[in-house]
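Deliverable D2.4 — example input (structure tokens):
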């Protein structure tokens, strides 16, 4: 692509060759040469008229022009060039061309926002080979400045196949000479009753293609999906796109108003103005009519009449061979030959995804488009983009909900909308004039689906609202059974709810998980409240997950840790919700059991991202101090205090935990608390730069864990002792011996997390003496850490130290990025500082501006990790400043940034990074790293592929 695509008011030009498929089939070699020449002519002509080719579509091109006059001149020149060329194909190449002016929003990496391009595409599709058609928007700009020799002929208003309002179309040609073409291929040229739509069709390109392809393979296709997901709009758009396939057009039968099953045939007959013949039933008359037709029959909203619709469609299949049926329904008809296409919500991304990508999703595009209908000057800005994205995410990307929210833009800002979405049924209850009754409000749309369910299905759907982040079938059976939901019938009931698009089934590495869209979950919560079941379900839920974490804690230090981690990791949202519910209910026993089993500390299980829990609230519950797990809950609070930078509070909580242990005995499922206390204090010393104290603390923690029969935990503590020793300039021989002991204990435990940490510790001692072996150990640790869903976050953290010492910058960035990605919302400042420091050193090679900011963020994180009490820095002054290879990497980064940009700019960039919070610094670094490094295989990659 030459030049930059224009933005603002842009005139689009789209071309397509008429009859090219036949020419390819007749003589592919001649066509290959002809297409090459065709492309050359178009590229030269477009460039000569100051246009930019931004896409190729089949045998056509899409170009953008800064002025309408250039685009019109370019279109005429293209047709002239094609007409003058001597083609060696069976017949000359004839292009149809559409020209349309609209707002052009350039999306980096993906061309233009789709809506104006799609509008131009529909305009072009209405033309014939050799014909140039121009929209009324373009004609208004060029009517007084047409190039000499050109004229425009008014072809009248036409409904294009985007189903929008009629648009006036003009034909471009030589002035004073009317070229005759057949009537435009607009909606008006085909039989049918497809209704005009008052709003544009946004996104859904993949779904349109899927449904169109399915209709080419099957004569019955049913589009399924949750209420409000856009099934009807998608079906209508596909029908409009495919009109040329059907000689007798496309016909819509709206079944939403039909309440009596016998009325299905009458509704279809009414569409064709069919009157009964004497002695013939309405259904027989309809079948006799359709048997002679080639058409597309769209049956919309079938879910409440499935039996009658299925019987009619099955008969059409048998008796009407050229009729194709496209249906929309919450569930399929279950007839032979039916193909189901499930429509997902619009892409809205996940919290934490890159904002620049999220603002270009279909969900955000829909919000902006609909907001402009009620507030013409609404625009997506730096100030409201994050709020618009959050609205779309919290509404699950459901188009109906997004449209209702956007309608509030006339009175509420996106930020105000976000604050009110916890009351979404009130906020989105305004309705839309002219909407189908059940879609007038969000509640009405869900009521419609809910009322079609049986009593047991209704009760189970409501009870599923107690879960957060999905659940397993086992959890549903245990928590949600009870009158009228029979435990043995739960699987069938869930299957039915999935078939009706009310429950989402998602495959995972462990098991199928089931979840509700947030809007339906809130609806279910309301229903539970009406039935008085809320508190009962919450306690059942908390009891189930308390038992789960207790079993997981029992196995978290041995060879079964991975298997249990696979079960617990997906349940983090449920565990947090269970703990909050237990606290709110004042159930100290449940709350302590949940908090004590939480993987809060140096666990050796693959735990992914750690998440803060309200341990302090548990400590305040009446009776909590008498529970067996209470000392561990105190330690959970101590670790969180340390990560928050409050070392004094952490020390006091450690003292309280040890006192509680002496009073109650050692809590189940772990070593004595003294080892945990030693590890916590060791990390506090490490944060203060008291490396000798850190080594002593980790070593003592390892001795205690090993004595209590937890070799995997002992191995992990020894691994941290090794890195602490090396950072403080300790002797290499002693560090190597400790690392070897760590690996031996880890392998004895058969625990993958412990093995990873031991391997990285040993590799760290070998980088200067045996780099090949160090790299081999590092590779083994990374392979062990990288199983999807079982990533070992701490393993990536220590791996980035080894990769940095080896100066393998691509691998350093890959593992540092993965560690930040997994920990990102709960990363201890010391760990964050380490990853940021290593990432900054990598960036310094080629991206000094970025490196300077990330370096500042790393220094700030180190300061936050360090205790305010300077007495903790007992041995800091005795440490060789060059021995700390992490700080050495930061200083090296600063030197490289200064060499590239100057010392003044280095200080400015560092100040920018230092002003960021730790979360902001991590987010800034991750936003500038190739997303594939965050979730793909962790391998050493070429340097140029690291950044975006």
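Example output (designed residues):
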């Amino acid at each position: 692509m030459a030049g930059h695509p224009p933005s603002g008011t842009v005139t689009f030009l789209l071309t397509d060759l008429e009859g090219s498929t036949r020419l390819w089939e007749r003589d592919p070699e001649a066509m290959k040469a002809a297409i090459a020449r065709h492309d050359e002519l178009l590229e030269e002509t477009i460039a000569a008229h100051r246009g930019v080719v931004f896409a190729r579509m089949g045998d056509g091109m899409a170009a953008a022009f800064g002025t309408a006059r250039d685009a019109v001149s370019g279109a005429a020149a293209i047709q002239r060039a094609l007409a003058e060329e001597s083609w060696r194909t069976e017949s000359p190449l004839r292009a149809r061309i559409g020209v349309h002016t609209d707002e052009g929003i350039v999306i980096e990496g993906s061309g233009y926002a789709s809506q104006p391009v799609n509008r131009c595409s529909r305009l072009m599709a209405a033309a014939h080979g050799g014909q140039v058609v121009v929209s009324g928007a373009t004609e208004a700009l060029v009517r007084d400045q047409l190039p000499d020799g050109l004229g425009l002929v008014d072809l009248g208003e036409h409904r294009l196949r985007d189903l929008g309002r009629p648009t006036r179309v003009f034909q471009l040609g030589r002035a004073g000479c009317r070229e005759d073409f057949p009537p435009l291929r607009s909606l008006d040229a085909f039989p049918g009753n497809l209704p005009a739509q008052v709003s544009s069709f946004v996104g859904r390109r993949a779904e349109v293609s899927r449904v169109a392809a399915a209709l080419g393979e099957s004569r019955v296709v049913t589009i399924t999906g949750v209420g409000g997901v856009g099934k009807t709009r998608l079906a209508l758009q596909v029908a409009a796109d495919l009109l040329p396939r059907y000689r007798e057009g496309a016909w819509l039968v709206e079944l939403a108003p039909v309440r009596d099953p016998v009325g299905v045939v009458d509704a279809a007959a009414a569409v064709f103005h069919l009157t009964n013949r004497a002695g013939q039933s309405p259904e027989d008359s309809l079948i006799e009519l359709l048997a002679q037709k080639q058409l597309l029959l769209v049956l919309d909203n079938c879910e409440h009449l499935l039996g009658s619709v299925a019987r009619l469609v099955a008969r059409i299949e048998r008796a009407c061979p050229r009729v194709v049926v496209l249906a929309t329904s919450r569930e399929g008809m279950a007839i032979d030959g039916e193909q189901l296409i499930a429509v997902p919500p619009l892409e809205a991304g996940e919290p934490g995804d890159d904002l620049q990508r999220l603002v270009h999703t279909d969900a955000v595009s829909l919000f902006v488009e609909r907001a402009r209908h009620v507030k013409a000057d609404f625009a997506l800005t730096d100030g409201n983009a994050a709020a618009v994205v959050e609205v779309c995410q919290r509404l699950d990307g459901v188009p109906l909900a997004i449209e209702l929210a956007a309608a509030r833009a006339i009175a509420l800002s996106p930020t105000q909308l976000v604050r009110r979405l916890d009351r979404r049924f009130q906020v989105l209850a305004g309705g839309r004039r002219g909407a189908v009754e059940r879609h007038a409000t969000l509640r009405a749309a869900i009521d419609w689906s809910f009322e079609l369910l049986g009593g047991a299905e209704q009760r189970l759907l409501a009870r599923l609202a107690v879960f957060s982040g999905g659940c397993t079938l086992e959890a549903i059976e245990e928590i949600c059974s009870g009158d009228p939901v029979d435990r043995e019938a739960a699987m069938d009931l869930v299957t039915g709810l999935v078939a009706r698009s009310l429950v989402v089934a998602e495959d995972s590495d462990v098991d199928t998980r089931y979840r509700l869209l947030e809007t339906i979950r809130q609806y279910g919560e309301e229903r539970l409240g009406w039935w008085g079941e809320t508190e009962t379900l919450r306690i059942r839920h908390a009891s189930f997950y308390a038992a789960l974490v207790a079993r997981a804690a029992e196995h978290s230090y041995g060879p079964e840790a991975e298997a249990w981690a696979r079960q617990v990791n997906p349940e983090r949202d449920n565990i947090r919700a269970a703990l909050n519910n237990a606290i709110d209910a004042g159930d100290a026993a449940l709350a302590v059991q949940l908090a004590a089993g939480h993987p809060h500390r140096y666990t050796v299980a693959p735990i992914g991202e750690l998440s803060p829990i309200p341990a302090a609230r548990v400590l305040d519950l009446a009776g909590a101090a008498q529970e067996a797990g209470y000392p561990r809950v105190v330690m959970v609070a101590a670790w969180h205090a340390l990560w928050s930078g409050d070392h004094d509070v952490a020390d006091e909580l450690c003292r309280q935990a040890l006192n509680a242990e002496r009073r109650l005995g050692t809590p189940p499922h772990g070593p004595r608390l003294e080892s945990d206390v030693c590890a916590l204090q060791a990390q506090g010393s490490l944060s203060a730069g008291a490396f000798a104290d850190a080594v002593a603390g980790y070593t003592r923690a390892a001795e205690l864990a090993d004595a209590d029969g937890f070799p995997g935990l002992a191995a992990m503590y020894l691994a941290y002792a090794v890195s602490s020793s090396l950072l403080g300039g300790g002797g290499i021989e002693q560090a190597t011996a400790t690392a070897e002991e760590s690996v031996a204990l880890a392998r004895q435990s058969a625990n993958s997390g412990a093995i990873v940490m031991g391997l990285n510790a040993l590799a760290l001692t070998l980088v200067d003496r045996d780099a090949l072996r160090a790299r081999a150990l590092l590779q083994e640790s990374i392979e062990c850490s990288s199983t999807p869903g079982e990533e070992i976050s701490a393993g990536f953290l220590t791996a980035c130290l080894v990769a940095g010492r080896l100066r393998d910058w691509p691998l350093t960035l890959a593992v540092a990025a993965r560690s930040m990605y997994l920990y990102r919302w709960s990363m201890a400042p010391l760990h964050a500082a380490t990853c940021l420091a290593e990432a900054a050193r990598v960036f310094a090679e080629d991206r000094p501006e970025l490196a300077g900011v990330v370096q500042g963020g790393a220094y700030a994180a180190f300061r936050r990790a360090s205790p305010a009490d300077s007495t903790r820095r007992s041995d800091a002054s005795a440490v060789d400043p060059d021995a700390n290879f992490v700080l050495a990497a930061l200083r090296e980064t600063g030197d490289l940034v200064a060499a590239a940009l100057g010392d003044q700019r280095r200080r400015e960039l560092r100040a920018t990074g230092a002003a960021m919070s730790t979360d902001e610094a991590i987010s800034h670094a991750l936003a500038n790293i190739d997303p594939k490094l965050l979730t793909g295989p962790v391998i050493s990659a070429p340097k140029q592929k690291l950044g975006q």
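The two ends are 20 Å apart (CA to CA).
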